[in-house]
Design brief:
This protein is of the alpha/beta class. Helix content is 45%, strand content 18%. The strands form four sheets. Strands 4-3-5-12-6 form a five-stranded mixed sheet, sandwiched between helices. A three-stranded antiparallel sheet has the order 10-7-11. Strands 1-2 form a two-stranded antiparallel ribbon. Helix 12 (258-265) links the parallel strand 8 and strand 9.
């Protein structure tokens, strides 16, 4: 057997998703023929495959997300038999089902969901390419991807976005809202350009730099039905300990969470059965309708207007900062779009100074 021909087999690309190995004797026999086309076909048959058609992955993703071959076919503008054949091609390549057919539609198998994730990435990139082309046709040649938390999205950012529309900024502004930890990870991974998030993070951010743009601190807010929301009621240790606490931003990756407040106050609350991350409306609703206590940023709370009877609790605990910083990657801190955004942001924030 020719070692050179055997090496040719080994150098052919395997399928990224699977790593089934062919029997050694078949490998040797096929390598001995020297027919590269035959080798490629044989590798496909026995499980080491050439890259899958991206269209198949996107079709699978749509079918799984819609839960129906019929609805997916309409969305993709193909016939149902055509889409069913595509699913069959994928299953032949995989060697296992990627969909489970049920009376009400289809659901993904484990391997089907893994492949669908790749399809969703392809669809997202295709949509991003379409958006970039549209902006280019409109004369907008660059973009700035901004990440903000839910609190900022409800208070500071709407007015800033309005100014970007009125001022016709020279780039497209793409706003993504989530809690701090995923925002910072997206910034590190170059999936965002700038992030407005608390300055005090527990994450490793060695590749990033930050500038505090909005000083703030945490305060305890008592729900409308809490005894601590009534005037003249002191925030004693006993009352704080027996109160019902809602943990907001529990997994946001921020220093100065409720656990640190509890430590400073020297209390061990007995009721902490609700944790909320990445949402503002739920804790606000609970403040208006229950006796819950929540630790929230003081200045941002003041921008929300009427809290339906909820009040800030006056308590004697060390100040915990919740300053908002503009985070960017160090190598891009002097990028023109980022410098422009930073200037517009500072101008906007001046209107909130008292």
């Amino acid at each position: 057997m020719s070692a050179a021909r055997l090496q040719m087999w080994r150098q052919l690309p395997p399928c990224e998703a699977y790593s089934w190995s062919p029997p050694n004797f078949l490998c040797a026999q096929l390598a001995e023929t020297g027919d590269e086309n035959k080798i490629r076909k044989s590798k496909l048959v026995i499980g080491i495959c050439i890259p899958m058609d991206p269209r198949l992955l996107t079709q699978l993703a749509v079918a799984i997300d819609l839960g129906s071959i019929n609805r997916a076919a309409k969305r993709l503008n193909v016939t149902q038999p055509t889409l069913s054949r595509s699913m069959k091609i994928i299953e032949d390549r995989v060697g296992a089902p990627v969909l489970i057919r049920e009376s009400h539609g289809v659901v993904a198998t484990d391997v089907g969901e893994r492949l669908a994730e790749r399809g969703r990435v392809i669809l997202a990139e295709a949509e991003a390419a379409d958006d970039a082309l549209r902006r280019w046709r409109e004369g907008i040649t660059s973009e700035l991807r901004l990440g903000v938390g839910p609190f900022l999205a409800a208070t500071i950012i709407p007015g800033l976005v309005e100014k970007s529309l009125r001022g016709t900024w020279p780039y497209a502004l793409l706003v993504f809202s989530a809690s701090a930890a995923p925002l910072i990870r997206r910034l590190i991974d170059n999936r965002l350009d700038v992030v407005l998030a608390p300055s005090q993070l527990r994450l490793h951010e060695g590749s990033l730099t930050q500038k505090v743009v909005f000083p703030d601190r945490l305060v305890i807010v008592a729900g409308a039905r809490s005894e601590l929301a009534r005037k003249g009621v002191a925030a004693t240790r006993e009352r704080l300990e027996r109160a019902r606490w809602v943990i907001a931003g529990a997994r946001a990756g921020i220093h100065g969470t409720e656990s640190e407040i509890f430590l400073f106050l020297g209390i061990e609350p007995k009721r902490q059965n609700i944790s909320i991350t990445g949402d503002l409306m739920i804790p606000l609703h609970l403040l208006k309708t229950t006796d819950a206590l929540v630790a929230l940023p003081e200045r941002l709370i003041g921008m929300l207007g009427d809290l339906g009877g909820a009040r800030i609790v006056q308590s004697n605990f060390p100040e915990i900062r919740r300053d908002i910083a503009l985070w960017v990657r160090k190598q891009e801190q002097h990028r023109i779009e980022i410098l422009h955004f930073s200037e517009r942001l500072e101008e906007h924030l001046q209107s909130f100074e008292t």
